[in-house]
Amino acid sequence: MLGDLFYRGADPEILIFPKLTASGESTCRGVYLAGDASGKSLLKNSLNSGAEITEQIAKKLKGRALKDNTFHLAIIGAGPAGLAAASRAKKLGLSFVIIEQSIPARTIENFHKHKPVFAEPAATENISDLWFEECTKEELLDKWKTQLTASAIKINTGETLEDIRDYADLKEVITNKNKYRAMAVILATGKSGSARRLDIPGEDLPHVHTALSDPDYYSQLEVAVVGAGD
After folding, report:
1. Is the four-CA dihedral 20, 21, 24, 27 of positive or negative sign?
2. How far is CA 22 from the centre of its chain?
3. Separation between Cα atoms, residue 43 and residue 225, nearest integer Å
4. What does the angle CA 106 – CA 150 – CA 120 come to, to the nearest 5 degrees?
5. What is each CA distance from 179 to 14, 22, 224, in whole angstroms?
């Protein structure tokens, strides 16, 4: 099913666009895209997207009985859109599972130390339940961590999505660790993807990194750089 969610643009090697309805639902019924994966770039837009889509799903699910061992919502990705979706689901009383292959807000975690985060677009109101104002990356992450802890939102980290399948009138979300059944799925995976690995022994050692968030850490060290991109 995952391969049916997107279509390619003029350059088939690069441009991938989501097929979405006005409510954010994909051509795979019951699967929604939020945030950067849906084309909503900028943090504030992603936050609003996650909250708005969760509201739409809650309206559609109203009156439907929840079956045993089933969630109202499966959220894939714990970036801004996924976290905003989880926060709104919690507020609305929806049961949910949120799955993240790495760590929550990984893209922001990978920003360089003390990076300013701008609350753009300035004319757009933040309608999500997560705090967001102009600040540094550290302040933003601290605020979100405090809010998520207070809301008791659990995130299944280190869990990678493998497939989404139809299961009667539900969706079955298959990961490398588990299977979940939900009435609806929100894909909030972003577009940055994961760093390519070398698939060699030692690449998981603690001194091997795939992001440069603090250049000072490497000062005066002998460093081997693999790859010559940005």
Report:
1. negative
2. 20
3. 30
4. 50
5. 31, 29, 39
